[in-house]
Amino acid sequence: MGELELIEQIRSANRDAMGSGRSVGARRGRGGVVLGIGDDCAILRAAKGHEVLVTTDFTLEGRHFRRDWHPAESVGHRALARGLSDLAAMGARPVAAFLSLALPREMVATRSGQMWADRFFAGLQALADEHKVPLAGGDTAKSPCGLVLADIVLVGSAKAGRALRRSGGKVGDLLYVTGTLGGAAAELAAMEGRAGGGRPRPSRMPGEGRAGEHPQLLPQPRVQVGLALVRRGLATAAIDLSDGLSTDLAHLCRESGVGAEIDAGALPIHPLAQQAGSRRALELALNGGEDYELLFSAPAGVRMPRKVAGVTVTRIGRLVTGKAISIDDVVQGPRRLEPAGWEHFARRSRGTDAIRDGREVESADA
Ligand SMILES: [Mg+2]
Predict the structure, then answer these.
(1) Shortest CA distance to 181 belongs to which of 247, 132, 226, 127?
(2) Which pTM value belongs to this model?
(3) From CA 268, how far away is CA 196, in angstroms rounded?
């Protein structure tokens, strides 16, 4: 697949949204994509009184997904979900997405490789349609290392000065999370178990199911929740849970200059994680990562609705003076909560070809 082919593919997939490639949602005063695919650059227009937010995320084979475990649609979905989740964490509205994709030579040359790319796009496009975010540009290359490498750039907008930050938390604020925790890591562990069973898992997309049924394969970025938190003035600080609660909470506390106390009994744990037994379930909820839920703080005086934008919100603790983060439950009592979030495949993929050949690429979430 050449660059032109990719561009054609994206352009045709976005035809409804993009029209002739011009003026996507860029109505007077609203901002959006003025010029999409087809020129040397895309042209975006910021809405009056708004700021532009930009986030970029690697999706690297062997690091963020495995081609033998994750169906191609899931890889495309997850690539976009990571960027959308960063915008959600700051309460920004998605404006445009840009994709750079490198495929190994042997994939470009084969029918099955081309089908993988088609399915990758289908997964990415379905989530883009759901959130009405146009793909406004892209680039392709042959990967020099036999691995699929993708990079997604998401551009969003928020009213000037209103975007949520990690640094806004105050002592006494209460801590909340959306949805449930630990599901993504629990589903991944199940995938690992099946892969270890020796029977190759059919490489297809799970059937249509209830939202949240595939927290690893199809995480749901909380874009509408982030927008509602800003609109209703409910939150003082926020972050998305990409690396795991223990690690991402530490980021929020450091930026806010506060400590935190977590009530382990209050954590909303995904049913898939609960199946692992209570001790392992807690470990998955705290350190599992990739749940892409939002963690946010709000003043104790704010009456928090049980649901925001249709998503359940659960109080899990509060911000306190000092730097320490602690967790308490009836079984183990109060103790330090060390950041031990999951570093994607860093520990799991030892021995895979990617690692053996020294081709592993380090990445860090900004
Ligand atoms: Mg993030």
Answers:
(1) 247
(2) 0.87
(3) 29
Residue stretches of the chain with pLDDT short of 50: 16-25, 27, 198-204, 208-209, 347-366
What's the rounded Cα separation, in Å, for the pair 345 and 68? Answer: 14
Looking up tokens 């297809």, which residue turns up? 204
| Model pLDDT, residue 343 | 61
Residue 241 and residue 293 in contact, taking contact as beta carbons nearer than 8 Å: yes
Six token digits for residue 28: 């007077």
Nearest Cα to Cα of residue 10 among 115, 140, 204: 140
pLDDT for 206: 53
Q: Kind and range of the H or E element at 23?
A: strand 22-24
Instruction: Give tens-digit pLDDT for 13-42.
Output: 655 444 344 444 454 556 799 988 888 899
CA–centroid distance, residue 142 to ligand 1 (Å): 28
The H or E element spanning position 327 is strand 325-328
Angstrom distance (rounded) from CA 20 to CA 55: 27
Confidence (pLDDT) at 16: 46
pLDDT at position 366: 38
What's the pLDDT score for residue 347?
47
Question: How far apart are the CA of 244 and the centre of ligand 1, in A?
Answer: 11
CB 153 within 8 A of CB 223: no
Which of 227, 243, 197, 202 shows the shortest CA–CA distance to 311? Answer: 227
**Backbone phi and psi for residue 335, each to the nearest 5 degrees, phi listed first:** -160, 165
Q: 342: CA distance to ligand 1 center in Å?
A: 14
CA distance 75 to 136: 19
DSSP assignment string, 267-285: --B-HHHHTT-HHHHHHHH
Query: 103: CA distance to ligand 1 center in Å?
Result: 26
Q: Could you identify the residue written with the tokens 């939202």?
A: 211
State the Cα angle at 315 between 310 and 318, rounded to 5°: 140
Note whether 253 and 323 are within 8 A (CB).
yes
Structure confidence at residue 332 (pLDDT): 83
**Distance, CA 108 to ligand 1 centroid (Å)?**
32
How far, in Å, CA of 73 to CA of 54, rounded? 24
Q: What is the pLDDT of residue 350?
A: 33
